[in-house]
Write a structure and sequence with these properties.
This protein has 309 residues and is an all-alpha fold. Helices cover 68% and strands 0% of the residues. The longest helix is centred in the middle third of the chain and has 41 residues.
Length: 309
């Protein structure tokens, strides 16, 4: 039985996320602890409100393990562990409900969204969580059911509120679990109207499109100017808000094909605009690097970025 979930519960989850993040930082955790806090608090909120089964924790634990293994440099074991977590999200007890094609979509989307979030967070970590919160808000206004989305949105709001001035990031270890949590939430709350699931994924917008544009620009080995994070926040927030509105318009229709076409066209246009702006030198899209100064593997994402030669 799903318990009712209201504004008071959202505030409690948000306050819990904020306090947990501040406690983690006080205990010496690095900036990207935001992702681990988000997953832990959101899972606790889902369990406390009866909106998820304990078995969801197995899938999230597997995804966290895959992030840890991959961050330590074991790419293939990390990939197989990520795939296991995605399968548990879709087919395990308490997994995403719905037809077979929807469950297979969850399995496919989880690693793709994880790769995009990892790329974005390692280069633009200070705005990843706020944009993820905008995406969750867009999904909340799009999907027919909102119980799970409200819990995740409350946790995101709390981490963002506590971590913005501390430049909170998701972190490499947590990106697969965050991606899995988001995909599972959108699939569960959109089960009553499948077009809304497509629209909710489209609400991720810039978080999916910007890594593609960055990779295309890096392939050109193009130099570009750098801007401060306030400039980037305004640009990306405007893009994200526009994509949320378009995805909402797609999600409230019942036609799955129409939603797919609208969201795909919107994401493709976003990639094209970001790519053109980056090539023209109007936006800074740095190339990520995997190692901190001195050659040590950077497990936190705080080593900074490097530019194309």
């Amino acid at each position: 039985m799903v318990n009712p979930f209201g504004q008071r519960d959202v505030l409690l989850v948000g306050a819990g996320a904020a306090l947990t993040y501040l406690a983690a930082r006080a205990a010496g955790w690095k900036r990207p602890a935001g992702g681990i806090v988000l997953v832990a608090v959101a899972f606790g909120g889902l369990i406390a409100t009866g909106n998820a089964a304990w078995s969801l924790g197995l899938a999230l634990a597997s995804l966290l393990a895959s992030g840890w293994v991959a961050a330590a440099g074991a790419a293939w074991p990390g990939a197989w562990t990520l795939l296991l977590g995605a399968v548990l999200l879709a087919f395990g007890p308490g997994g995403a409900p719905g037809p077979l094609w929807l469950r297979l979509t969850v399995v496919a989307l989880t690693p793709l969204v994880a790769a995009a979030l990892d790329s974005f967070d390692r280069r633009r970590g200070s705005v990843a969580l706020p944009l993820l919160a905008i995406a969750a808000a867009g999904a909340y206004g799009t999907e027919p059911d909102t119980e799970q989305t409200l819990v995740v949105l409350g946790a995101l709001a709390g981490v963002c509120a506590a971590g913005w001035w501390l430049r909170a990031g998701i972190g490499r270890v947590a990106t697969p679990a965050v991606a899995g949590l988001i995909v599972w939430t959108f699939a569960v709350d959109g089960r009553g109207r499948h077009s809304s699931i497509v629209a909710a994924i489209g609400c991720l917008g810039v978080l999916l499109a910007e890594p593609v544009a960055a990779a295309l620009i890096a392939a050109r080995r193009k130099r570009w100017r750098e801007f401060n994070r306030w400039y980037w926040l305004v640009i990306l927030a405007l893009f994200q808000a526009g994509i949320v509105l378009i995805s909402h318009a797609a999600g409230i229709r019942t036609s799955l094909g129409w939603a797919l076409e609208a969201v795909a066209a919107t994401l493709a246009a976003t990639v094209a605009v970001l790519y053109a702006a980056g090539v023209a030198g109007l936006l800074a899209l740095p190339v990520l690097r995997d190692r901190a100064p001195g050659g040590a593997l950077d497990l936190t994402g705080e080593a900074g970025t490097t530019r194309c030669p």
